[in-house]
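quick q for whoever's on today - can somebody do inverse folding on this one?? i tried earlier but teh output was garbage lol. tokens:
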């Protein structure tokens, strides 16, 4: 037999190994170089090596592993539980590791993973206050919706799925605030720092405000600071959504709808719903104001069978709102809609309106308050009394008396020097008070002249003295206000102001310097803060309590000395009065003089009393 035929045909893999072969194989395996993964070493071993050997290489590897790996729920539970065991060892030297742990995506995981993450987060902040800022920041970032999540935020309200995720975040935040009182200031600073940029999509800002209000509901201690922050951010939206731009876009939409006006109307058509604004910032402001009105309504509206503590809490919240108004809204110039938060709250209870007006009037009377603030405060009083349906006529007459007494006292106290110095700057508050009276009488003429009792009251205000005094307040009033006031007082023989208006018209002639024309600056820089509210969605909270100006019978057939015709984007309105004491030829001359004043556009919002709102 050949040597080949004597060998077995069995392959080596099926051959049996001797004990010596097995030992040699084990020795070879032990001599090989092997590397364990960060997952195998774990966080406990990595921290132990760093503390004992001062070698942070394993910590860096484990941090990179957490940031890059797609961890399952079981792995998250294991890592978080191991981290809790050594939480006291995670000093600020391990800040990168702790930040990576707190940055894990945990909201959509299993209940065990969420609980493990929450327990670690609370424990690490209790053990090391250096991580409070990191932990709070990671939580607040969960408040900000993604730019692509607009479908989950309809008019600032989250879907059920998003609501469930946010409940988890707020529950953890409440636990932290309860366990770590030092986090109070950090929360305020972080919310302010992470507030979305005002040019972000509307649902982003509205969603963030939704979460801020959620925190105010659960933690009333944050109400004042967070409400002030929200109003400050809404002011930025308000000034970046000018009324002219919103009305111009709405006019274009109305024109498009008018093109189809001859189409057959369906008699079964449902009532027209408010349309979203085409102005992006205006639309964002509208949604945010809608949420804010609802929040304020819940906070301030009385509840049946409420106890004393609930009533005290609502009154305390109203006082907080008035304080914020004084600090944020009152000094702000050229705002259009945000100030209506106070208008809406005052409509809830008559006591709120009385307290608001009393607070404003105290500022007007206080000589220690700056003149510009007193001037704006008077505008708020006049506009509020003119526009609020819920304010009784007795309140209007009371403040007319107060304004008249103050103005007449000012005239009586004026000395020889002040009578010669009648400049606008030196007497700004006096002119503001006089204009407020003129505006209020002209705007509410129907109510103030409806019976003999009210006419007797108007006679007692010494309107003729105010209009004819040496300060000449009609000279500095807005022309529409002066014109309307003169018409009402002439008809009811309260005062005769047209001669003053005629004289003032001559003083407003332009001065020519070469090729330049200069008009005298003799008009109060006034805005009436409660001019019409034009945001459609949130307007439902304002319209039921808002008084729209209706043309007085006197205005329909009257001609004024200096004709002021102002055209607005939504219709033309003319306030013209007839002066029987002016000859026809002189009236023509005054009409020609008045044409040089048409460029003032005094009827527009910002300086308009809103008389042309039909």
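ok took a stab at it. sequence:
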């Amino acid at each position: 037999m050949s040597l080949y035929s004597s060998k077995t045909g069995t392959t080596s893999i099926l051959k049996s190994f001797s004990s010596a072969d097995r030992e040699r194989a084990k020795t070879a395996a032990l001599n090989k170089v092997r590397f364990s993964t960060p997952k195998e070493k774990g966080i406990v071993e990595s921290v132990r090596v760093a503390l004992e050997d001062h070698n942070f290489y394993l910590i860096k590897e484990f941090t990179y592993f957490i940031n890059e790996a797609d961890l399952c729920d079981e792995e998250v539970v294991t890592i978080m539980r191991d981290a809790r065991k050594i939480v006291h060892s995670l000093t600020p030297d391990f800040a990168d590791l702790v930040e990576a742990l707190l940055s894990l995506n945990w909201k959509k995981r299993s209940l065990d993973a969420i609980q493990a993450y929450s327990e670690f987060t609370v424990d690490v902040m209790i053990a090391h206050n250096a991580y409070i800022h990191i932990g709070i920041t990671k939580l607040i970032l969960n408040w900000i919706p993604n730019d692509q999540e607009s479908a989950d935020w309809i008019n600032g309200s989250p879907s059920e799925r998003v609501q469930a995720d946010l409940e988890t975040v707020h529950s953890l935040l409440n636990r932290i605030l309860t366990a770590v009182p030092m986090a109070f200031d950090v929360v305020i600073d972080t919310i302010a720092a992470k507030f979305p940029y005002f040019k972000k999509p509307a649902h982003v800002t509205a969603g963030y405000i939704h979460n801020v209000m959620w925190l105010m509901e659960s933690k009333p201690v944050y109400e004042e600071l967070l409400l002030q922050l929200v109003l400050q951010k809404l002011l930025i939206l308000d000034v970046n959504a000018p009324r002219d731009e919103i009305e111009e876009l709405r006019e274009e939409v109305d024109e498009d709808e008018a093109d189809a006006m001859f189409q057959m109307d369906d008699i079964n058509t449902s009532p027209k719903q408010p349309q979203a604004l085409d102005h992006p910032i205006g639309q964002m402001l509208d949604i945010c104001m809608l949420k804010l009105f609802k929040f304020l309504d819940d906070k301030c509206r009385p509840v049946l069978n409420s106890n004393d503590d609930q009533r005290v809490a609502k009154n305390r919240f109203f006082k907080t709102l008035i304080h914020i108004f004084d600090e944020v809204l009152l000094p702000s110039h050229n705002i259009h809609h945000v100030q209506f938060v106070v208008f809406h709250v005052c409509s809830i209870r008559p006591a709120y309106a009385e307290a608001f007006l009393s607070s404003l009037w105290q500022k007007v009377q206080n000589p220690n308050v700056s003149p510009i603030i007193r001037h704006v405060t008077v505008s708020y009083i006049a506009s509020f009394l003119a526009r609020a349906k819920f304010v009784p006529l007795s309140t209007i007459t009371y403040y007319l008396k107060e304004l008249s007494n103050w103005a007449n006292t000012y005239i009586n106290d004026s000395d020889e020097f002040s009578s010669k110095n009648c400049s606008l700057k030196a007497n700004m508050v006096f002119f503001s008070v006089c204009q407020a009276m003129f505006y209020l009488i002209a705007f509410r003429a129907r109510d103030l002249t409806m019976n003999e009792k009210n006419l007797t009251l108007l006679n007692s205000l010494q309107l003729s003295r105010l209009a004819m005094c040496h300060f000449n307040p009609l000279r500095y009033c807005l022309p529409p206000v002066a014109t309307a006031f003169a018409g009402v007082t002439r008809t009811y023989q309260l005062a005769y102001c047209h001669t003053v208006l005629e004289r003032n018209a001559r003083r407003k002639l332009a001065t020519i310097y070469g090729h330049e024309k200069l008009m005298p600056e003799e008009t109060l820089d006034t805005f009436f803060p409660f001019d019409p509210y034009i945001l459609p969605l949130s307007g439902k909270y304002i319209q039921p309590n808002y008084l729209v100006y209706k043309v007085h019978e006197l205005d329909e057939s009257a001609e004024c000395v200096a004709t002021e015709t102002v055209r607005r984007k939504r219709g033309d309105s003319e306030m013209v009065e007839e002066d029987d004491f002016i000859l026809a030829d002189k009236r023509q001359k005054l009409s020609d003089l008045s044409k040089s004043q048409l460029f003032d556009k005094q009827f527009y919002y910002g300086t308009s009393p809103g008389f042309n709102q039909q």
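fwiw Confidence is low (pLDDT under 50) at residues 1-13, 32-36, 556-609. also Residues 371 and 429 are 6 Å apart (CA to CA). so keep that in mind when u check it
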